[in-house]
Amino acid sequence: MAGKLQDRVCLISGSTGIAAATSRLAAQEGARVFFISRTAEDAGALRESIREDGGVCELAVADLTVAAQAEDAVRHCVEVFGRIDALYNVAGISGRRYGDGPLDECTEAGWDTTMTTNVKTMFLLSRAVIRQMLAQPPRENGLRGAILNMASVTAFSPQAQHFATHAYAASKAAVIGLTKAMAAYYAPRKIRVNAIAPGLVRTPMSRRAQSDPDILHFISSKQPLAEDLIEPEAVAKVSVFLLSDDAAMITGETVTVDAGWRVSG
């Protein structure tokens, strides 16, 4: 039986957490996966893991804040696999260790680093991929491609006590706004664009929360469906759906995967 992404070429930014879980699942669903990471060690380990399981994948090591490196990575993907059917912009940072925090405490470096890493990277990679999608013929379903952007529940459901990182929230709100603008403009050109907004997920980025008893107690009721952090595989399943033909008529949406965050606490 063919997988949800059979013979599709999926480009994913990042090589840990949700990016890694989605890369593995996409490969299991028949995709040829190309992922981009700035960390060669993580990328190499993920490639080895996917190939050991019988998946088809390749990687590029790049700093996606640099336009030339983003464009080179996209070019490499096309050289290896011939086209790009799906892009998942996952790579990003919390920003806290760079100076992000409540606005009166947030440093310029914290703001700039967070916005650059979470928004500019998405802009540069999406621009390069969209140019490729527009140049390639549609698939049998009539569509040229699908793009999924990583937002966050904190973009529209803030939590002041434990997650007061205002540059991060602003960056993820920007992702949602850009997603809608992209979706409206590129729908006639047969490119779908959606966003996904997770709650607190068990990833390397959430290590601070994972080791804080107060946050864990808070999350047990804030995310009642999990009573804990969300596992990255749960987000990966929704991500693969949104990138697949099962979601062929969905664009301009922000799908929240928050285990009840918005409606609890």
Describe the structure.
- It is a single chain.
- By secondary structure, the protein is α/β, with parallel strands linked by helices.
- The chain has a single domain (9-263), classed as Rossmann fold (3-Layer(aba) Sandwich), CATH 3.40.50.720.
- The chain contains 8 helices and 7 strands; from the N terminus they run E-H-E-H-E-H-E-H-E-H-E-H-H-H-E.
- A 7-stranded parallel beta sheet has the order 3-2-1-4-5-6-7, with helices on both faces.
- Helix 4 packs parallel to helix 5 (166-186).
- The longest helix is centred in the middle third of the chain and has 28 residues, at 108-135.
- The model has no long low-confidence stretch (mean pLDDT 97).
Alpha-beta content class: alpha/beta
What is the tally of beta strands? 7
Largest sheet: 7 strands, parallel
**Beta strand %:** 5-15%
Helix content: 40-55%
> How many helical elements?
8
Using only C-alpha atoms, the radius of gyration works out to 18 Å
Order of the strands making up the biggest sheet: 3-2-1-4-5-6-7
Average pLDDT figure: 97
State the CATH architecture. 3-Layer(aba) Sandwich
Please outline the helices and strands:
Layout: E1 9-13, H1 17-28, E2 32-37, H2 40-52, E3 56-61, H3 67-81, E4 86-89, H4 108-135, E5 145-150, H5 166-186, E6 191-198, H6 207-210, H7 213-222, H8 232-243, E7 254-257
Parallel strand pairs: 1-2, 1-4, 2-3, 4-5, 5-6, 6-7
Helix pairs in contact: 1-8, 3-4, 4-5
